[in-house]
Known about the structure:
4-stranded parallel β-sheet; 17 strands
Amino acid sequence: MSEITPLPPGSTIGILGGGQLGRMLAMAANQLGYRCIGYAPAGDNVAADVCADFFENGWGDTSALASFASQCDVVTWEFENVPLSVVDAMPRDRLLPGRRALEVAQDRLNEKRFVEELGARCALYARVESDDDFQRALERIGNPGILKTARDGYDGKGQWRITSDYEAKGVRFPGRTCIYEGMVDFQAEFSVILVRSALGEVRFWDSSANTHRGGMLVTSILPASAAVEAQVEQARIIAEKTANALGYVGILTLEFFATAQGPIFNEMAPRVHNSGHWTIEGAATSQFENHIRAICGLPLGGTETRFNQIEMRNIVGDEALSAHHILAEEGEPHLHLYGKGQALEGRKMGHVTRVSNDHP
């Protein structure tokens, strides 16, 4: 392999987005001696608390974007809905991962076609542009199913679950390009999280079994079930093919369903991921540190799991108001609160990870 000159300590990492993922990236970068600056529209930008500087400007503010970019030695992002116009305003040779990853991941239809060409299996799906399209999709795929906006949805937002003909009649096309997917009969949900360096080295973390409620992740647990373990290797092949096809640098997450027919691809996140938060305490190197290592040209850290049992649980809404009591509980709890202002219902306010070397 060729050598890459790593960014020296004191270099500036630019982070597009101001949420908790950006906050944890900046914390990992600070530990390695890097300076971080952030950019996001006005809002509850909790990443600003741990950045040396933060641009709270609109995505269309070309002057502010130019000023931000001029100060960065490398630019990355913390969520996949950063407008492509913003990415295009960044120096291409300093943007990691590259633009193509966002271009694919921002459209669920493009994303599914992309991974299918690499050999992944997906649930039955159809493009929906109108009420008539939706009716045709229902006739072909049936229900139960789920109608999703093709762009911008996350944590269950922009999604309509349909479990009966009665519910289907009550749904109307929302006026935006959508995708209708048939429900998958699955045994478990799991993530494949990898890090890829600029030299093409790929490392995987162990896969957690994930549970969701209303489209939002609730818990990630290791070790995963036998059903998951039996399908991880097949899923990793797809994930590595995806990373290589994108020329990816950094953390890439693919979510799968474990089914009787093998792993079914659900969706991709070109970023650090909620289901990888356990790696902060539970792995040799966290997903956040390895993302920084990858984009800065440093050697990748080990991804080995350090404990026999790990559980990560999201803290949602007003649970955060009394979360400090968790510290008194048994099971070595590690509490992370994100510093968000208003504890709104359904809003991720933090997470807690419990680790143990007891045998299950």
